[in-house]
Structure formats: C-alpha cells, structure tokens
Specification:
About 70% of the residues lie in helices and about 0% in strands. With about 170 residues, the protein is mainly α. It is elongated and about 55 Å long. About 15% of the residues have low confidence.
C-alpha cells in the first residue's frame, strides 16, 4: 500500500459511506430532516448521490494506475477539484460551522492530494518505506523502487500514458 492508496482509500470510503450511499439509500424523511430541506429537493439530492458514486468509481481506477507504478495524475486532479472546491463552498456558505469535522476532512484530503502531486516519489512509495524515513529506521525488508514519474506537473501534462509527448 502506498501513501496515495491510503489517501484515495480514505476519500472513497468516507465519501461513499457518508455522502453517496446515504443520499441514495436513506428514506426521504431522514434526508429531509438531516439536511433541513423540503421534499421537493430530494430527487436532485438522489441524483447528486449517483454523481458522487460515479466519481468514486473514477477514483477507484486510480488504484490500477498505482499498482502499475504510474502516477494517476488525472484522478488526483479530479480529487483536488472535488475536495478543494467542496471545502471552499463549505467556507463560503457557512455550512462548515455546523460540520467542522467534515469540512476539516474534506480540506485535509484536498491538501493531501496536492502534496501527492508535489511529491509523487513519496506518494507512490510503500507506506513502510515512508514510515522508515520518518523514524530513521529500517523495517528489515527491502523495498523495490516503484517506477514513478518524477517530473513536474507541467511535464506530466505534456506526456500521454505511454510517455510520448503530446504535440
């Protein structure tokens, strides 16, 4: 498991369990009561739940890129837009006051995803190797270096999946 696996896993599980599935599965009365809305908005909230779960499927495809030692730049950027803008909307509308822990989690995931882009070498490293670097120790096991894209964001945008330049 890599650092990016952990970040995506937290994002997928948290969003699925606390946003997507409740919007699809909770009875209308519970959704209306929890969100303090009238019933006319419920169909739109159900559609939003579908959209959220569709995004989570996209995030899950990030795992296949990671397992193939490729940094899933598009998936990470999608998460930054989703969580970053979601966090700023919570701040701008004031709903963060009623949901401080949720706002903090959403914001922290956005920050973690930005950090993953900035330090792709760390994001793609096995957690045990990252842990060893913080403790100064060695877990006794040897870790193969993942083949990661070590360039900058601008360089990554200029390459397609096969590593060919886009012109």
């Amino acid at each position: 498991m890599t650092v990016l696996d952990l970040v995506l896993g937290v994002k997928i599980l948290g969003t699925g369990l606390f946003v997507g599935l409740p919007l699809l599965l909770l009875p209308n009365g519970q959704i209306a009561q929890r969100l303090t809305i009238d019933g006319s908005a419920l169909p739109y909230l159900r559609l939003y739940g579908v959209a959220v779960l569709a995004l989570l499927v996209g995030y899950a495809f990030g795992f296949s890129g990671i397992s193939g030692s490729h940094f899933p730049l598009g998936i990470v950027c999608m998460g930054i837009v989703s969580n970053g803008l979601g966090f700023f909307v919570m701040l701008a509308t004031g709903i963060h006051r009623d949901n401080r822990s949720m706002a903090a989690l959403i914001g922290l995931i956005a920050i973690a995803l930005v950090a993953c882009i900035l330090r792709q070498d760390v994001a793609m490293a096995p957690l045990s190797r990252v842990s060893d670097s913080f403790t100064g120790g060695n877990s006794g096991s040897s870790h193969a270096q993942p083949t990661t894209y070590g360039g900058t964001y601008g360089q990554a945008v200029g390459q397609n999946i096969e590593g060919n330049t886009n012109h």
